[in-house]
Amino acid sequence: MEAASEREELTLVARKPGFGLPTACPSCLPVYIYLKFAGVPFRLDFNLANPDSDQIPYVESGTYVAYNNEKGGVIESLKDDDVLDLDSELRSAPDFMSMRAMIGSWLEDALSYELWLGSDGSPAHKIYYTDLPWPLGKVLYLKQIQTVKQRLGITKENTERREAEIYRKATIAYGALSTRLGEEDFFFNRPSSLDAAFIGHALIVLQALPETSTLRNKLLQHDNLVQYAEKHKAQFVEASSSSSSASQFPSIPKRGSKPKSETKKERTPQEKTFRKRAKYFLIAQFVAVLLFLSIMGGASDDAEVEIDDDDEGFSYDE
Amino acid sequence: MEAPEQNPTNGGERDPQNRIGEDEEEEEEDSEAEDDDYEPEPPQPLSQEAQLRAHKARLTNLSRKLSSEQVPIRVHDVLVKGNTKTKDWVIEAELEDLKRAGSLQELLQAASLANFRLQQLGIFHSVNIVLDSGPKELPGTANVVVNVVEASNPLSGEIGYYTKPEARSSTVEGVLKFKNLLGYGDLWDTSFAYGWNQTSELSAGVFLPRFKSWATPLIVRVFLITQDWLKYTSYNERSMGLSLGLLSSRNHDLTYNLAWRTLADPSQMSSRPVRRQLGHGLSSALKYIFRFDRRNSPVRPTQGYAFVSTTQLGGLFPDSRSLRFLRQEIDLRYAVPLGFYHAALNFGMSAGVLFPWGRGFLEKPSSLPERFFLGGNSSPFSSLGGPTSLLGFGTRGVGPAEPRRQTDDESSERDFVGGDIAVTAFADLSFDLPFKWSRKSGIYGHVFACAGNLAKLSQNEFRNFSFQNFVKSYRSSVGAGIVVPTNIVRLEVNYCYVLRQFDFDRGKAGLRVSFSST
Fold first, then answer.
1. What residues contact A36, with CB distance under 8 A and at least 6 apart?
2. How far is CA A132 from CA A55, A126, A232, B141, B316, in A?
3. Residue A183 maps to which CATH number?
4. What is the pLDDT of residues A194-242, one digit of tens each?
5. What are B49-81's pLDDT values in tens digits?
6. Which GO terms describe its biological process (chain A) (predicted)?
């Protein structure tokens, strides 16, 4: 059994490592980097059997869980629940939110496209499916390709047009980010979720995608972005567990917002008794019918093949 | 005047036509036509009487011969008539014994058995086996003519309440059957079943009574099963796959199951051990059941004993990433009659153990759907399904429970995560009720006591496992009730009182209704 202390500490559950990265999944790496920037010690656990789930990555501590598909993501959930917030003053900065949105839409789409549709599929396979038995991996991979096509609005007729559009947007995004960054260490002078999001994206583009990849070549045109990503990678890959400043766990509040219990509270006590009574009523009816049938002795058989008794006697006829 | 009947001197070998089984058309003896030709015209009743007497004399002679001595005979030819769709070899496969019969008694026995077997195939409307004399040049031979009438409507449907060996609980099932689509005696069926806990199953299968030269029938099913355990363990299970019945005889049962299983949690409230198991998995398992049932009645056992052992080995797949586990269950039953009021003492014990195998198996968690769960509405007294029932406790309401995700101030609920080792036992005294109507319809009463326990062994928990603690921490309940066996389902209405429960068990005294299949 896992020790109680293991349960209490902060754990990030992400997809498996690969390509020299602690986790090779595009939605998990930004969360990892964010936690590293915050200097918070955490365990890294892997989930290897759920490649198509949008619940991963998630952060847990005791009975508190922040899922990826709630409240806009793990980072946003941690901010909302007052667990961890690196962006407190930056929210008012005008281009912070728009840059976040640009990474979250244009660059994310471009990376999805490149991973699933642009390359031969081996990077995606390595990230998501190497721990599933072969038939399952194959079917889920094909299913995911269809899902990505649907999400990006790609059909047989508009493939080339959409591809050009996706790459164009990625180019614009890279250009804007490169201009914004300049030669600084961070986009906004201190580590923020924007840095985590971009570094996560950039490292996967640089290390997981093949050298022939269009997106990768576009990123390589911006030296400052590449150096920025490499520098931060060296920092957190080498600095393993102990960080410089805070080494205490963030306090997980016992009270958080309620996603599901509102619907539960709507089940008033009256409804509960009504349901219970209805159940007993139905059971009583059923029992009464069965008793009636057996006591009156008239339950009809439902045999489909009637096997008559063998007529072993000799029949003689005229 | 020529003798009307063709009654040769060795009367026993040329016997009047035997009809065995359901009669459709009777072949008239030639002799009767000749009878009418040659006899004078006395008033009708008289000639009939005379014929009757003559027949009777022949038959008495024959039956005397049959009972006193072996009448040697050889089967010359077997003819199959009436099958337009069914292949000849399917019918002839059931007639092997017939061809080897050496005497008339053996022939009659074999014919009756063959008739039964052909009817059992379920594809014929009627079967009629006629024994006729062989060609005149070969005395002492017989011809067998099998007349079959194929079912005109190959489609049939039924609704029933069953317990399938793969399923954990009983279900109400609607089945649509196609008989003999290919002429091989094949039975195709599609069924939809709905059971407790929103378990629903959609499946289709084919039953081949004979596949090439295999002795046992071949059963192939493809299925899609969904089970909803959100209320108890915060997950949904969806299983899609195929199952092959390899061997099925009275004592042995061997099946192979290949399934793609997905565990998901749409409520996103599951506890940590359950969260770790969500995802896809491939289960490729061989299941062997050894059954030995010497009780006088499976529905109301008053005498005898039974033993069932179920072994499941998962991971038989060339890919090492499929689910690897070994699951063993044992059931023992023993019933002792007490003599008065048709009463009997019925004892039973069930135990099961589960552990994963493969590299690093000591630290691996066992697969959640394979674990043992105690509690629910199933009744252990007549069924032999492993350690699953403990009356008085809610579904999955016993054993290790983990706290669920907490999102607000409310105390967090718990997920019952089951155990790797489970033992249940019961003692039950059944007796007739002192009313005449109850005795007529088979309704009886019973008083019982149940006990059971569940523990986790995987992930190095077995190091902390102590047998004394396991025995000391048993849960138990007592109760009394009435059992109503009907044609479709066995109904029990019990009042249960929980004597011992621990921690977070969901045991509650009260009236419970259980259904089980007959």
1. A236, A239, A243
2. 18, 11, 32, 66, 15
3. 1.20.1050.130
4. 999 999 999 999 999 988 899 999 999 999 999 999 999 888 766 544 4
5. 888 999 899 888 878 877 777 778 888 888 888
6. protein targeting to mitochondrion
Residue of B nearest to A304 (CA): B156
Place of tokens 């359950």: B274
| Domain assignment present for A251 | yes
Side-chain-side CA neighbours of residue A289 (13 Å): 8
CATH code 2.60.40.1930 for B67-150? no
Please report residues of A whose CB lies closer than 8 A to that of B280. Answer: 49-51, 132, 136, 140
Q: Is B419 left (phi over 0), alpha (psi -120 to 50) or beta?
A: beta
Nearest C-alpha neighbor of B281 from the set B243, B323, B228:
B323
Kindly report the length of chain B: 518
* Residue A123 phi, psi (nearest 5): -60, -45
Residues B247, A35: Cα–Cα separation, whole Å: 56
pLDDT digits (tens, 9 = 90+) for A123-170: 888 889 988 888 888 999 999 999 999 999 999 899 999 999 999 999
Per-position DSSP letters for A258-290, written without gaps between them: -SSHHHHHTS-HHHHHHHHHHHHHHHHHHHHHH
- Cα dihedral sign for A64, A66, A67, A72? positive
Q: A-B interface: how many C-beta pairs under 8 angstroms?
A: 150
Please, which residues have CB within 8 angstroms of residue A313's CB and are 6 or more apart in sequence?
A: none
Question: N- to C-terminal Cα distance for chain B?
Answer: 64
**pLDDT at residue B314, as a whole number:** 92
Is residue A246 very low, low, confident or very high in pLDDT (cuts 50, 70, 90)?
Answer: very low
In angstroms, how far is the first alpha carbon of chain A from the final one? Answer: 85
Three-class secondary structure of residue A208 per DSSP:
coil
Which range among A144-153, B179-188, B502-511 shows the weakest confidence by mean pLDDT? B179-188
What ipTM does this complex have?
0.76
Evaluate the omega torsion of the peptide bond into residue A57 and state whether it is cis, within 30 degrees of 0.
yes
Non-local (6+) Cβ contacts of B371 within 8 A are B354, B417, B418, B419, B420
> Which residue range is the domain that position A138 belongs to?
2-312
Question: Rg of chain B over CA atoms, in angstroms?
Answer: 31
The number of distinct structural domains making up chain A is 1
* B489 contacts A293? CB cut-off 8 A: no
Q: How confident is the model at residue A113 (pLDDT cuts 50, 70, 90)?
A: very high
Domain boundaries, chain B: 67-150, 216-404+413-517
Query: Mean of the pLDDT values across residues B143-159?
Result: 82
The predicted-structure confidence for B248-258, as pLDDT tens digits, reads as follows 888 999 999 99
Cβ-nearest to B408 among A2, A256, A314: A256
**Three-state DSSP class for residue B407:** coil
Average pLDDT over residues A170-190: 89
Of B159, B267, B276, the CB nearest to A260: B267
- Cβ distance B292 to B309 under 8 Å? no
pLDDT at B420: 93
The beta-carbon neighbor of A299 closest among B19, B487, B491 is: B487
CATH number of B216-404+413-517: 2.40.160.50
Tell me what percent of the residues of chain B surpass a pLDDT of 90. 28
**Count of beta carbons in the 10 Å neighbourhood of residue B215:** 8
CB crowding B462-489: b at 16 or more within 10 Å, else e: eeeeeeeeeeeebbbbbbebbbbbbebb
